[in-house]
């Protein structure tokens, strides 16, 4: 029997009371259960808060029942009861707070939900009910995830995992919840392979739980995990796999008659079909969602918004921009009601694309600015930083624990004299070993934090003046009715902004992605500088741009320097020539311009630019070479006249086949 069996039995009884009995009978029945020693360890309604998504859809009496339980718990908690009865009412009150906290998590007042979960955790800790306390931590972590505060959720989840994994069979439900939460966090970070792995682990635990105690709630949670895997496969453009997992999830959601999840899964299925150009099948699926009367009656905005967005994308593919615009606007209005940033971001992106295509530039600019407000890349990075630190700490502590247990088993078989001698020696060795490992761990974490702070500073390389000037130029082109120029400019600027924000969170990107970002940057600079220069980007034959990965945005400060300073005296006919080439398996970047050359020193190491300084520090960090040098030359003709400048430096890279 696993841990939630007795609590689930109580939950079923109480839920049955809420459906079948009058309030007086409910109260009498609850009092009977409270005073029945058989249910001493079942009074904590943790299953309530974990089951909120499922049961709240079917019967609002569920919340009514919890409020009644809360009144009884509060009243009796304040009494001067014997210790055993005091603990019982403490756990009842904790269960009430937990459910109220979860109820708030589905409203705009989510901060209140956190406060109630904290009350629940404090009560459980006061009576040393650690099983329920760590379960409640996972519930609180789930609320943090809903609030897009993954970095606060991660420590709670890992604390729970370390506690529950001491008996994975007994804590099968709790392990499943923890792995599901980690899978959700990895989805938010767009690390979909890891998200799939954690959701698959969760499914194994859900299957074990269902085998021990079949119930619809476990089926519901398994359905969610399948749906999350389908979402990750879609994000990886593996649409056949996405369809397979959507169908697995739909089989469950239809069986348990959960219309909300069915609607969202159908939307995911329709999108996968659409990407495989099965447009008629996709349209039929999206219309099926809109025809589910239970969704309309429950005003289920998330599922309906997803359906409208799906239809908008489908109409774009069919070339019907009018219908696409109507569907996208309907979905966008619904997405705002949900409070979901992901849905709002999707809607803004769709309307932006449609507005550009229909030359409604004012609406396009409005959607672009809305999108930039809701995308918080620094929060994603903070979450990644916290997750990586927790994983590092967790693996370290786990290995240390295994090491200690192994050592204890070996020494247990020796006689007392050997135990004493070996124990003294082992203590000395372990002390040194722990000190060494702890120092290494701290250095690794400090290095990780330092590197990620530097990654965040990459965003500063995109000069604010460049952003503001670009937006001003777009607005001017719209006012002057230069439609084609406005479309061209807006498209390149939005693509570049998205590339920089996304790549600033990555340690390595492909050479193809780096070159694409360069081209967009140079094209925008051409527009800003009235086409006073041209450019070329050459890659040596034999270099596989898709398999060669390098740190992002190392080259951008040198390109900016060549345009801003090298070509400062040129009003026309300027040239920028960029080249990537290999020498002895080392990758080199070279940039030439036909400008005024370098004044004085031939080294860029003394340059005052913040972007240059950051870039050189990054190069030193990646190469582990404190003497790293950027080679610079002023180019002269036969008459010693300056005709340009050249910068060359080695770029660290990794190669993946």
UniProtKB/TrEMBL annotation:
TPR repeats lie at residues 176-209. Residues 455-533 form the Signal transduction histidine kinase internal region domain. GO terms for molecular function: kinase activity. The chain crosses the membrane at residues 417-436. Keywords: Kinase, Membrane, Signal, TPR repeat, Transferase, Transmembrane, Transmembrane helix. It holds the Pfam family TPR_8. The keyword Signal applies. SMART domains: TPR. Residues 1-22 form the signal peptide. This is Two-component sensor histidine kinase. The lineage of its organism: Bacteria, Pseudomonadati, Bacteroidota, Flavobacteriia, Flavobacteriales.
């Amino acid at each position: 029997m696993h841990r939630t069996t007795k609590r689930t039995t109580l939950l079923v009884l109480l839920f049955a009371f809420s459906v079948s009995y009058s309030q007086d009978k409910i109260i009498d029945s609850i009092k009977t259960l409270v005073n029945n020693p058989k249910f001493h360890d079942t009074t904590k309604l943790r299953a309530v808060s974990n089951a909120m998504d499922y049961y709240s859809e079917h019967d609002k009496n569920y919340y009514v029942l919890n409020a009644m339980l809360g009144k009884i718990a509060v009243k009796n908690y304040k009494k001067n009861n014997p210790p055993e009865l005091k603990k019982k009412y403490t756990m009842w009150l904790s269960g009430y707070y937990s459910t109220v906290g979860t109820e708030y998590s589905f409203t705009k007042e989510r901060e209140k939900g956190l406060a109630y979960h904290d009350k629940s955790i404090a009560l459980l800790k006061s009576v040393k009910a650690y099983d329920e306390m760590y379960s409640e931590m996972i519930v609180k972590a789930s609320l943090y995830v809903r609030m897009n505060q993954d970095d606060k959720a991660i420590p709670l989840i890992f604390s729970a995992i370390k506690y529950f994994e001491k008996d994975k069979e007994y804590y099968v439900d709790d392990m499943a919840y923890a792995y599901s939460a980690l899978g959700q966090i990895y989805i938010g970070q767009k690390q979909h392979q890891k998200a799939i792995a954690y959701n698959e682990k969760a499914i194994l635990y859900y299957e074990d739980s269902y085998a021990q105690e079949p119930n619809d709630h476990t089926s519901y949670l398994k359905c969610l995990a399948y749906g999350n895997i389908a979402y990750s496969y879609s994000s990886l453009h593996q649409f056949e796999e996405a369809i397979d997992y959507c169908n697995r999830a739909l089989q469950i959601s239809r069986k348990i008659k959960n219309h909300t999840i069915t609607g969202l899964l159908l939307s995911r299925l329709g999108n996968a079909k659409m990407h495989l150009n099965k447009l008629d099948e996709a349209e039929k699926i999206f219309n099926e969602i809109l025809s589910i009367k239970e969704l309309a009656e429950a005003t289920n905005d998330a599922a309906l918004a997803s359906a409208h967005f799906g239809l908008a994308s489908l109409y774009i593919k069919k070339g019907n921009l009018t219908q696409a615009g109507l569907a996208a606007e309907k979905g966008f209005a619904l997405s705002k009601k949900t409070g979901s940033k992901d849905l709002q971001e999707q809607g803004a992106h769709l309307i932006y694309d449609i507005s550009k295509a229909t030359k409604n530039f004012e609406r396009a600019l409005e959607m672009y600015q809305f999108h930039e407000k809701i995308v918080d890349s620094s929060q994603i990075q903070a979450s990644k930083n916290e997750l990586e630190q927790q994983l590092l700490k967790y693996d370290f502590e786990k290995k240390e624990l295994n090491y200690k247990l192994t050592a204890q088993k070996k020494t247990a078989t020796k006689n007392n004299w050997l135990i004493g001698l070996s124990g003294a020696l082992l203590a000395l060795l372990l002390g040194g070993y722990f000190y060494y490992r702890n120092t290494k761990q701290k250095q690794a974490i400090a290095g990780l934090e330092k590197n990620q702070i530097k990654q965040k500073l990459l965003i500063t390389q995109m000069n604010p003046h460049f952003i503001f000037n670009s937006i001003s130029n777009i607005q001017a082109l719209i006012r002057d009715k230069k439609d084609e120029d406005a479309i061209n400019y807006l498209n390149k600027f939005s693509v570049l902004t998205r590339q920089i924000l996304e790549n600033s969170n990555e340690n390595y990107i492909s050479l193809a992605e780096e070159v694409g970002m360069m081209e967009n940057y140079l094209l925008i600079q051409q527009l800003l500088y009235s086409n006073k220069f041209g450019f070329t980007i050459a890659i040596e034959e034999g270099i596989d741009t898709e398999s060669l990965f390098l740190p992002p945005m190392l080259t951008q400060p040198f390109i900016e320097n060549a345009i801003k300073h090298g070509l400062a005296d040129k009003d026309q006919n300027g040239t920028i020539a960029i080249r990537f080439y290999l020498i002895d398996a080392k990758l080199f970047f070279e940039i030439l311009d036909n400008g005024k050359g370098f004044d004085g020193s031939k080294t860029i190491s003394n340059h005052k630019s913040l972007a240059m300084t950051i870039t050189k520090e990054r190069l030193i960090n990646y190469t582990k070479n404190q003497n790293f040098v950027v080679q610079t030359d002023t180019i002269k003709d036969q008459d010693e006249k300056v005709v340009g400048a050249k910068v060359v430096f080695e770029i660290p890279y990794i190669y993946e086949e």
